[in-house]
Amino acid sequence: MATGSEYDLDPVVKQYVKAILSSLEHDETDNAIILAERFAAARPNRKEPMYLMAKAHALAGAKNVAVQILEQQLNYPPARFLYARCCFELDRLADAERALQTLVEQAKYGLDKVSGPWLGKTLEISQVQFLLGKVQRRMSNFVKAKQSFDAAFNLDPLLWSAFQNLCELDLEPTGTFKKSKKRKRHADDIDTEPEGSSEEGTDTEEGKQCLLQDSVSLGKGFRALHAYNSKTALESLREVNEQQYNTAWTYCQIARAHYELTEYTKAVRAFQKARAFQPWLIESMDVYGSCLWHLKKDYELAALAKDMEALDRLAPQTWSVIGNFYSLKQEHQTAIQCFERAIQIDPHYDYAYTLLGHEFMAIEELEKAASWFWKARSRNPRSFNAWFAMGKVRDQQNKHEQAWKCYLQAENLNKNNPTLYCHMAMLKQKKQEYETALELYVKAEQLDPNNPLYRFRTAYLQSVMGELDAALERLKELENASPLEVNVYFLQARIYKLKKLLPEARRALLKAQSFTKDPTVVRDALERLEGENEDPGAPNDLNMLGPQ
After folding, report:
1. Angle at the Cα of 398 (from 392 to 403), degrees rounded to 5?
2. pTM
3. Which residue from 265, 261, 284 is spatially nearest to 274, judged by alpha carbons?
């Protein structure tokens, strides 16, 4: 293997490398391939020519060609690393893992065998560990993936992508975004400072600490967001300095936090600010589309779909947004085709699997819905939406035990979602486990005190349990809570009838008359009010008020 001095002394090698790297930098892959072939002919015993040829083919999209070239060069560490990357992109995961594990083992017994001055650069072990983590994550070997990402982050605290993956896998990194003891990361690291480099070293360290400090504040918010502590995430992100706060990335995280809190209007505003900074955004726009879907903003969703299609038709997020647009128009089959297209583009894009499940729920094909939610969960075991939706499917199928297990898995991931607790309470209410149901409704209320639905359901259950005065007290607070007024007054009438306070029951029904589009419903209820055992009101099917 050529040393750095040999590389510098051979003018032919130097000129070929310079010309090929220049071609690659300018995306002239055809020229790079031709030059690499000439280089190989001029220096047949060198490893660099075939490595550079493979790199050019890989950048041109010919990953299989690159792999065939690199299979004969695996004793050259940069070639082994590039081989692993190409195998990863080709889903040859076992081959990629073996190649990377060899590099990691070599690093343990002598970094010079892995890292050296090849083509004027070094092969960072942190990057090897990071790619190994990505491979293992895709193989669903989450324990090993966490170890690899953690090792990468410990070696390089500025490797944000490793930190991001750790957060997504719900692991607290053992490394931190702080100044740490200097460690060797590659062979040409030395422990002594070269003469005359003190000022340069100080500037570098100061710059690094500035980057790390920015990462600390952003990292706290990002970690909290992926632990479903959305309120904590928002608080942490507010601590970020103004320069870092006013960026598209930060506003996207703020929007996601509001989305998880079901604060869709606030989420939309944050996404709009993010797009004002970067109109070309692709990442997180699928969540933006879901926010617009929840708010039934068809015009805005259509505009977003059009923008995304113009930006990148081959992004899975684009097809998720388009699918949500058709879903909002109740064109479910077209929406399904769009979500399937997103999966065809990226089979590892778990959000599209969840959206497909929701579409099949909408057309009442519950087993197909369950199948898609399960696929989403298998790709991302921490997908709260997949677990929650699976629970709703099993609940609709009256498979209550299975539904409850799914809800518990969802709760284990996210204890801050009021809609989940409302569904859990509804399930317990069906099974007449009223005390447990009441506790769950109260939890939902506490998490979202401004949502009248949770208080109404609590009041209804209290009336069923005979806690009539407590139910009336809650209903009094809800009298002006649109659009629940009719149901509130009907339930009041029912409770007053149970308490044998007929004048109050009559007044409640007369108030309901002001809010209903069908006055005959109230008239019939008034007639029944005088009956000995007749129930004057409250809708028979409270499920129509269920959280979506």
Report:
1. 40
2. 0.83
3. 284
